[in-house]
Amino acid sequence: QLYVLADSPKTISDSLPFSLYLAVKQYVRISDEEREAVEWSCRKIPNPAWVRIKHEKYKGDIAQVFDSDLPNNFVVVLVPPRDFPYSMPRGSRSLLDRSRLPNGDAVSNISISEEVIGCKYKGERYYMGLLRKNVHRDRLEPVICPHADDVQLHLQSGWNRTFLKITVHAFAMQFLRVGDWARIVKGDLRSEIGQVVSTDHPAGSVTLALTFSGFRKEVDIRLEDIERIFQVGDSVRVVAGSYLGVEGYIIQMVDDIIRLCQDVSKEEVNISVESVQIGDSIDVLIGEHMGKSGIVRWLSKGGNYLWFQHESSNIPVPIKTVQQIPNLQTLQFTQDRGYDVKAGDVVKVARGPEYSTKGVVQSVDFPNTRLTLLAETDHSLVDVPIGFVIKVHDTSLDSFKKDIGQEVYIIGGDYKGYRATLYSLSSMDCTVALHRQQRTKIQLKNVATRLNGAMLEGPDMLLFCEMRRRSYLAPQPRSVTPPPEKVASSSSASIENPTVSQFTWTTWSASSEDLDTAGPLAWLMNKEFCSKFATHHAMLKVSPSFMGGRLHNRFVSMACPNPFLGLNGPAPEGCVAVFCSSNTAGAAIQHYHIPATDLSPAPPQKINQQCIVLDGSHRGSIFNVAKCSLKKNMVDIAITLSAFLNLRFDQICLVEQSRMTV
Questions:
Q1: Is the peptide bond before 316 cis (omega within 30 degrees of 0)?
Q2: Which segments constitute the KOW domain (predicted)?
Q3: In the chain, N or C terminus with fewer CB closer than 10 Å?
């Protein structure tokens, strides 16, 4: 229903746009009771929300709604104070500096779940530096999306971080235009990149053009589920901070610094995208506070100043006068293990807007170097860069207990690359049996339970793929299966069991006849191919026998970088994790685990598509299709600018580069 205040239906119809005019079927004058209910719903302000104070000393200031359910139409808001219980220049607006309040009983803490979030002093309450005020509803004006500069002090305070993030994102999305590029950050299409085709800002949605299996498809996405992508050469305008209004084009992007060449003066300026974060340790290099150091407590995002805590004082200094001290405790990328974090680990945010948040890791997005944790205090989901957190301790042993008696994969140490049976657990290691032989102890960090979040890359991924390749082989009769051979180990590492330390087990061997029984995907796990599938999706055809043939006329994409671990979990033995877009409205991505025997390589459909060669001297190489004959089932692939190779469809497989590749 659409409620309108007017003197007649004709007045309403004259003011409606034509499309809405046609949709109106009936005009009804409502009762006085319903009118009161409608007017009350209009007066009530949601919580949380932004409001502008319209009268008295705080006229024009933006405030956060703290409590909108007070009697007599009063609303509790949080606003940066204008009056201070200590000496401040006339007209100052800043957060309360608690270090300048007297010590003793005159100041008392305000706490939630044993965490101090504010203080009480001389009858006033302050929440993370913001003043709590009671204001009548008639003196407030709702603000849907305030300018980022108008809520800078709220951002510095950090009160209600989830709401602040939504506000900043909504402000940034107002400038999204047709032709811009954006990345999807939530939902089934997460990490996909597309170009903006149309925007509907009032409805909060955008249409992106995405490419699936070489075909363009337009998808409607909520604005809150995407983020803007900037590239060198883009023409931009600064919309907040000290360079507000500056226009130019991007000439360089390094880490958190965007170098901009101004259109008019051609002067080059560096725009910092929060290179210094809340929680960082800094040294002051010049100025009256030179030589002092401390922890950043507040940060003027896009502005010129930060506040750092030195001993018992919070000191404001220009950002350009400080030097950040690297935090060596945060998670760092290493060549041998990548980022050492997985679901179930307990971490604490050491820098950024979510500073000091502690919780349990729910998921890890390695390609985009971000993780999601469940906050310990309010149980909200917090998304942060991996490099912003410190690991408190590894996942609880409870997450492994369900795997006792099950098969595990050894991803490090002397037995790297082997499969074993898990028998028992302790705080640092576990006991396993290799090929049902004598038991030995392995460090927990070297064991993966069906890829329990451990990141495998490079040689580790090849070893894992080699193990999974063997799982496709048809089992031989027990009477003719040879026992594993024992060969002397060249490793100098010591193992607690002396009888095991003298030997290392060789892998099971497979004959060419065994490979033939694995179906059309016997080549999938060979080393020359699986390294390619760390960065490319293999496109596969599905047998009519799977799901009654529902996917028979479509191509599916193999999961990347791990073909056995999709968004719906690890694939069962002998299956591959794949996905494809659905035929329903919105083109949601559907994920499947399909037996390898029901999959076969997909052929190309047109020129310029990419294919991987399955046979011959160019086996394992990826080339572009120069000519495609669907009638003859033949293609010409471009080896060089002037050299072409003619191949049959059964000698190639269609591939598509992963947009999640870093």
A1: no
A2: 175-202, 229-256, 275-302, 340-367, 401-428
A3: N
pLDDT score of 281 more than 50: yes
Per-residue pLDDT tens digits for 562-583: 777 777 677 777 788 888 877 6
Handedness of CA 185, 187, 188, 189 (dihedral sign): negative
Nearest to 465 by CA among 506, 411, 517, 406: 411
Residue 127 near residue 133, CB atoms below 8 Å: no
For the chain, give the mean pLDDT. 76
Residues 29, 182: Cα–Cα separation, whole Å: 46
CA atoms within 13 A on the CB side of 200: 9
Average pLDDT for 26-33 = 87
The token pair that represents 200 in the structure block: 């509907």
Amino acid at 30: I
How far is 613 from 649, CA to CA, in rounded Å? Answer: 10
Please tell me the CATH code under which domain 345-388 is placed: 2.30.30
How high is the pLDDT of residue 362?
A: 82
Architecture of domain 280-324: Roll (2.30)
Which residue spans within 54-170 are E strands per DSSP? 62-67, 74-79, 107-112, 115-121, 124-127, 130-136, 140-143
In the chain, pLDDT over 90 holds for what percent of residues?
7
d(CA 506, CA 498): 18
Helix, strand, coil share (%) of the chain residues, nearest 5: 20, 35, 45
In the predicted model, is pLDDT for residue 559 greater than 70?
yes
Q: What is the 3-state secondary structure (H, E, C) of 505-518?
A: ECCCCCCHHHHHCC
- Please give the structure tokens belonging to residue 145: 């999306």
Is the pLDDT at 56 greater than 80? The verdict is yes
Q: What is the amino acid identity at position 485?
A: E
What is the model's pLDDT at position 510?
A: 30
DSSP symbol at 532: G
- For the beta sheet containing 439-443, the strands, ordered from the edge strand earlier in sequence to the opposite edge, are 439-443, 429-434, 419-425, 407-410, 447-448
The dotted CATH code for 399-448 is 2.30.30.30
What is the distance in angstroms between the CA of the first residue and the CA of the last residue of the chain?
49
Look at the block and give the residue holding tokens 């940034």.
172
DSSP-derived letter for residue 286 is S
375-398, pLDDT tens digit by residue? 887 777 888 888 889 998 876 655
Residues in CB range of 649: below 8 A, 6 or more apart: 601, 603, 633, 634, 635
The single-letter DSSP state of residue 101 is S
Separation of alpha carbons 290 and 322, rounded Å = 9
Q: Where in the chain is the domain with CATH 2.30.30.30?
A: 280-324, 399-448
C-alpha span between 277 and 295 (Å, rounded)? 10
Average pLDDT over residues 579-590: 69
Q: Are 307 and 314 in contact (CB under 8 A)?
A: yes
CA atoms within a 13 Å half-sphere pointing along the CA-CB vector of 584: 4
Question: Is residue 56 packed enough to be buried (19+ CB in 10 Å), middle (13-18) or exposed (0-12)?
Answer: exposed
Query: How much of the chain, in percent, has pLDDT values that exceed 70?
Result: 76
With a cut of 70, say whether residue 31 has pLDDT above it.
yes
> Which one, of 143, 123, 148, lies nearest residue 133 by Cα?
123
DSSP E strands: which ranges in 204-340?
A: 205-212, 215-222, 226-229, 235-237, 247-254, 257-262, 268-272, 281-284, 293-299, 305-310, 313-318, 322-325
pLDDT band at 132 (very low <50, low <70, confident <90, very high): very high
Whether residue 104 contacts residue 121, with contact meaning beta carbons closer than 8 Å, is answered with: no
CA distance 349 to 386: 9
